[in-house]
Every structure is written in C-alpha cells, then in structure tokens.
Amino acid sequence: MTANGWAQIAVFSIILLAITKPVGRYLVRVYDGSFHWLAPVERLVYRWGGIDPTDEQHWTRYAASLLIFSGVSCLVTYVVLRLQGHLPLNPEHLPGVVDRQAFETAASFTTNTNWQSYSGETTMSYLSQMTQLAFHNFASAAVGVAAAVALVRGIARESGGRIGNFYVDLVRGTLYLFIPFSIVLALLFVQQGAIQNFHPYVHAATLEGATQTLPMGPVASQEAIKQLGTNGGGFFNANSAHPFENPTPWSNLLQMLAIFIIPAGLTWFLGYMVKKQRHGWAVWAAMFLLFLGGAATAYWAEARGNPIHAARGVDVVASATNPGGNMEGKEVRFGIASTALFATVTTDASCGAVNGMHDSFTPIGGLVPMVNMQLGELVFGGVGSGLYAMIVEIVLAVFIAGLMVGRTPEYVGKKIESREIRVVMVYILVYAFVVLTFAAVATVLPAGLAGLNNTGPHGFSEILYSFSSTVANNGSAFAGLTGTTYFYNTMFGFATLFGRFAMMVPALALAGFLAERRTAPESAGTFPVTTPLFTALLVSVILIVTALTFFPALALGPIVEHFLMHAGTLY
Amino acid sequence: MLRNQLRPAIVITALLIVITGLIYPGIVTAIAQLVFPAQANGSLVAANGQTVGSSLIGQSFSQPYYFHPRPSAAGSGYVGDSSSGTNKGPTDRKLADTLIAQAVDSAVKNEGAEKGHIPSDMVTSSASGLDPEISPANAALQVARVARARSVPPERVQALVAAHTEGRQLGFLGEPRVNVLELNLALDSVVAPPKADHK
C-alpha cells in the first residue's frame, strides 16, 4: 500500500461528500415537478401515451404500470436482438443473437443488471447497442429511481396509499436527470480518449507488420449512462478496463463518481422529503462506513499481492516505478489502488462495470465485491434500488430497536406493524433464497460445473459470485465462468428478474402501506433516526443479516481459498 | 385495466427508444466529432501515411529492438476485437506455473532480470488484454536489450524512455506509465531499426 493509493481513496470520498447535497437538491426539483425546460417534450409524450400527469396512482397501480412497462420493453429488446442481422446500423454484418442469449440479455438489461454473456464487439450491432441496450440503461435506471422516490413519498405523505404517477416519474427522470448528466459526462470521456463514432472497424498495419482490428462505435455515450444509471454493461468485453471505454485515471475517477452521485444524492433527497435532513446524513454515514471498510480491505488485499506469484519471482512490493501487488487482470494506468477502489464502488452500487478482472483478484480482494453485493446493493447502491434496499433495512433496524425498548416501533412518525415487517421479510428472504438455491443447483449439476474456468474453491466462488451478482442486479462477474450455455443463460435470466421485481414490488407495497398511515408526532419513546447511534445500529443490522445468511457459503469459497493460497496450494 | 396500461407502456417504450437510443447518441456524436475528432475516432496513430494503430490500444511486439508490452489474453495476444483477461484465479496452477513462471524465465533470460525483482506488470496479463502501457520499472529493464539490438548506447534509449514516461494524472491519479507504441515509434524515428530482420 502507498500513501498515494490512500490519497486516491480519500480524494474520491471528499468529492463524494461535497456533491451529495447539490445532487440531492437537483433530484428534489426533478421529481417534485419544478423543472419545466423540456415541458413541450413532456407534454407530447403524455399526450401520445394517454397519460394524465396529475393522476396519482395507488401503489398497486404504480407497481402494475412499472411491471407492464418493463415487460413490454423487455419483449421489444428480445425481438430486436433476434432480428439484428436484418436491421440497419450494422456495419460489421453481425447476425441475430441466439435465443437463450437474447432472452438473458433482454432480462438482464431490463432489470438494470447488465450481466453480459456475450462480447459486445463481436455480437451486438450499433443499432442494438444504442436503441436497445443504451435505451434500457436509461429506462431501467429511471424505473429504479422512480421506485425509490415513490417509497420516500410513501414515508413522507398521508395519502391513502397513493405514491405518485409511474410514467411521470419515468419520463421526468429520463429527461431532466439522466440525459443532461449523460451528455456532459460522455463529452468528458471523449475528451480523455473514449471513442464516439459510427465507423466500421479500423484495420491497422502494426509496426511489426501484422494487421490489428480496432473496434469502433458510439462508446462514450453508452459509457456515461452505463455508470450514471449503475447499469454496468460495457460496449466491449473488457468493460471499463478497455482503453476505449476508460482511457485514463481521470476518466476512471469520473466513472467511479458517476456510479455513486445519484445514490448519494438520494440520501439527501430522503432527508429533505421527510423533513429531517440529519436523517439523510445518518443514512449517508452508514453507507459511507460500509463503503470505506470494503475499499480499505480490497486495497490491502490486492496491494499485498499473491505469495504464490511472489515465490515464482514477481516483485509484489510497490515502489516509485513498480506497481507491485497483484497486477494479474489489472491495467497499468489504474494500478492497484484505483482498481480496488473501482471494484468496491461498482459492487457497492449495483453497477457491475469493472476496470479489472475480479476473477483474478486475491481471495480477500474478491470477497469484498461478493459481500458488497450480498449486503443487498445498499451501500449507496443501485440508482433508486440502493435507497429502497436501505429503507427496508432501516425499517428492520427501527423494528429491532422498538423490540429492545418494548415500544411500538415507528419510522419518521409512521408506525411499523406486522404487515410492514412482513413485506420487509419477503424482500430480504427473496434475495438470500434465490442466490443460495440457484448456486446450490449449479454446484451439483454437470451443466453448472461445465462452465467453470477455475477448479477448487475458486470454481465455487465463480458460481457464488455469478448468482450474488445477477440476483442483486449487479452484473459484474468472475468472468472466467462461461455463461453462454442454455443452463446459465436461462438461470441468469430468471435470477435477474427475481432479483428485480420480486424485490421491487415488496418495496412499493411498503410505500403504499406507509402512505396509508397517519404521521404521529414524535414522543419520548421514539427511537431517533438522526444520531450516530442510529447509524451504528443500522450498520450492525445489515452486517448481521448478511453474515448469518452468507457466511457458510463464503467459507467454502473465498475464505478457504485465502488460507490455501497462503499454504501455496494450486488447482 | 390491462388495455389502459398497455398503451402508455408501448408508446413510452417507442418514444424513449427514439430519445435515448437515437437522439441522445446523435447529439453526443455530433459534438464529439466537432470538438474532439481525434479522440472520438480512436486516437489513431499514423506513420509514413498509414494507420499503424491507436495510442490507446496495445499491440504485439516481439522483435528485440522494440520494447515489449505485457502478456495479453486478448485472443492470441493483442487481438483488437477480442478484449479479455485470463480470468485465472489466485490459486490457479496454469497461471502460476505456466503463464507467470514462463514470463519470469523469459525476463531473466532476455532482460537479465533478477528473480524476486521482476516488476509485477511485466509478467501478468492486463484486464483488457489491450493494455497500451508498461510500468517505468518494466521499461527500464528492457533498455539494455533494445540498445544492444539497435547498436546504440543505452543512454540514448534511456533518454527516450524518460521522455515517454507519463506521471500520475493531476499528480496523484493512477500510476506512472510508459506508452509502448509511442515509445517504439519514437525509437524508430531516432534510430532506424536494424535492416536485416525488418520486414
């Protein structure tokens, strides 16, 4: 570890703190309707769609709109991917995507997961990349924020279960939040060297007389929304490790910030909406502590390097000229610190972009991203999904605090009773149940084992990581796992759908239930949600729930591999 | 109920595809091509009138008179449209005993490196398989071989390496690095490569 490495983590943290409030303020104005500068476009969309923007939906109708929109857009993508060979904007003449992969990709992008079992440069035409994948990057992000905003409204309001209009939230989020932010970010990426064109691939004659094919395409525009929308699906196979996607350390810092700014801003939005700004900051602090723990652990593990490789002659001690540590699967321009930090950020949020190969991380370095996803993608988390995941844990935390002091638990004035706790438990159990069941099935079936690129505990880690990622809608991978089989394409497709909708609907139900309740004034027995004590309780509840659920599985994968690595065992 | 819900779902899907899938990338492409055309088109590098590669994408070099990039898992090595890492884990036998061990042996044999003092980037594959850069320590180890192959004093090669070493961005971001293609092009322009084994 170097002072410079820690400085990079510190600077990232300070910028994150500084932009939380401005972004939060902006979010308030997007979702309360105060922005008007695209009013003509908005009006046109509502008129053609037959939408009454003043129509407040009950949570059941809000959820139905969300599900139907997601279903329709998923189906459109499946059809376009299948037919891409017959469609325009395909200079490389790529054929239609096979059925299983088209299903998985459509499900994966609709659910904000962006798990990729394909290599973009040899599978997807420019048309598919832009009008389907990038469209879902916008839409799924806007859907996620809409669900979170609806939940916050449910907490803040007494409205008989009405929580806003899904289509208005979707359209306003896309027009006022994601598009303008993406245009600015995309141009910053191009300035650093990310490509943005519609040219056919370039064939270069290398200095040693060979021919090298350089892939082209509208990359920067996709890159911007990939990070801002915590989507993570790369244009190319190597994702943000590809120099055309993420050319410099500066573009890398911008990418990491882009992943976190909206989820961080949403904590301020929460505080503003419930009129307890310090509550928003208490939630921010809980997220930040979990982030910092992960980043420090991953950086420590990767900087220490691999003793097996050191024994073969590699100098793992960093110096002014040698990056040291574990550089397998990392880029020289990023080095150890920027790669460990990126891995933490991308898995804290449900982004899943990678700038290094997590499969080649040391066991503890790889454990951090895995645990981050298993926490439930709430450390800042996915855009929107991070906040509603965190609110679910907050409700659980105040419930437990209520039990401890023997009073009816309440959260910012709303009583928490059995039906709220029931949907909270559904939310928490769905994730654990689907991850562990699917991973167990893949571990015992020959079709599951056939896809492994590593054996021994690391092979199990590949499976556990893949389902932790797809159900959490993250989309990063221990990428050695070959996912292009009927077994994995199908399993992953369903895993992403469960992880998105079987969790988002309970979150919206919670919104509706809370919106039906009256707001009671605080009393002496109210557990304060603005204090460091609350932050500590929240962090503890999250860690305990995750540890109880996943420790046995983690022990069989990365934890045992850590000890085997130090004993010099190879597979 | 369902009919009422289907219309907005279909219309909004169609409109958002147009707005986010065509208009948005169109705007970005137009501005990018106008303001940053070199970057937007791939930071291509030309020599003697033809495109020899991109300064952002690594390419294979195996001749002794060129600096060599890191090992690559992109296809057979630096295949431009096959970006990939090895994805081999920390306890993988092939990674430790074949990929890394062979690269170490070659560094010892060709560069006179000392086991235990081999820069970590020199014998490991990058994440993209297209890493255009190497660490300054890696470049320093190769100076003697390149100078010998070109029959020039090592100081001249060393000076070129120093001129092509880029520090951390803004003084603290990322790691110091040397762009291999740019360095080799500079070498060629200063000292012509030996004629005999040039194509």
First and last CA, distance of chain B: 72 Å
- The gyration radius over C-alpha positions of chain A equals 23 Å
Distance between the termini of chain A: 28 Å
- Spatial order of the strands in the main sheet of chain A? 1-2
Using only C-alpha atoms, the radius of gyration of chain B works out to 23 Å
- Biggest sheet features of chain A: 2 strands, antiparallel
Instruction: Give start-end ranges of low-pLDDT stretches of chain A.
Output: none
Major sheet attributes of chain B? 3 strands, antiparallel
How many domains is the backbone of chain B divided into? 2
Please name the two chains that share the biggest interface, counting residues whose Cβ lies under 8 Å from a Cβ on the partner chain.
A-B, 138 and 113 residues
Count of helical stretches of chain A: 19
Mean pLDDT of chain A: 95
Q: Which structural class best describes the helix and strand composition of chain A?
A: mainly alpha
The outline of chain A comes out as: globular
Q: Assign a percent range to the helix content of chain A.
A: 55-70%
Strand content of chain B: 5-15%
Strand order of the largest sheet of chain B: 4-6-5
